[in-house]
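Tokenise the fold.
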Amino acid sequence: MLKNIFGRIFALYALLLFAGTMLVIFIPIWIISYWPDPKKTKGFLAIGRIWMKVYMPLIGCPVIRKGLENFAPGQTYVVVCNHNSLIDVPVTTAGIPGPNKTLAKASMGKIPLFSVLYKIGGIMVDRSSEASRKQSVEDMKHALSLGMHMLLYPEGTRNRTNEPLKEFYDGAFALAIDTQLPIIPSLLFHTRKIIPAEKKLSAWPHHIEYHFLQPIPTTGMTREDVPALKEKIFRLMWDYFIAKDKQ
């Protein structure tokens, strides 16, 4: 009972602090939103990383990154990551070195104030619209051509199961093959402990680890290689998660 009460109080504290700190950085980000890419995204992330370096420790959730050496200077990547919690997006966006964008629901672009952040850091897609889905693929390819990494969650939605990962969709792997860019598998640890999917308005402080694995090349691959590539990366991430969980 006491833990549930504290969880609600902590969640409210984290939400209020998030909103308050966002208001502090909103005006400079709003100005940056009128710049062209990739300058716009670089400026947004410069502010966003400072924001998260302050905010995350204040809510008792410092982020530890491992495997940054797997990002070669000047190389653009498709980064895939597991997805367990609402807190994953700010952690991954700020945690990936270099400019990056992620795929975001079009509905997120309709939230006042918050929409400005999503429209800079994300490529918006309405999954119910075939035209929007096709356009989002072209937008992702354009972002990659500008030297910005694409961050994708191949599970599609948050993993609410008891397994380390849900089944992957093809999109991230098809994008990497189409652009002939390497994929960096990455894994978040402990975000589910902070915001449990099964509880509403409840949170708990815990440190977060964000691990980047060695890049997987796609040079010479075709769309026929998507299933094998997807399975290979799924197995790599699954095995890494299990090994880390046993430590």
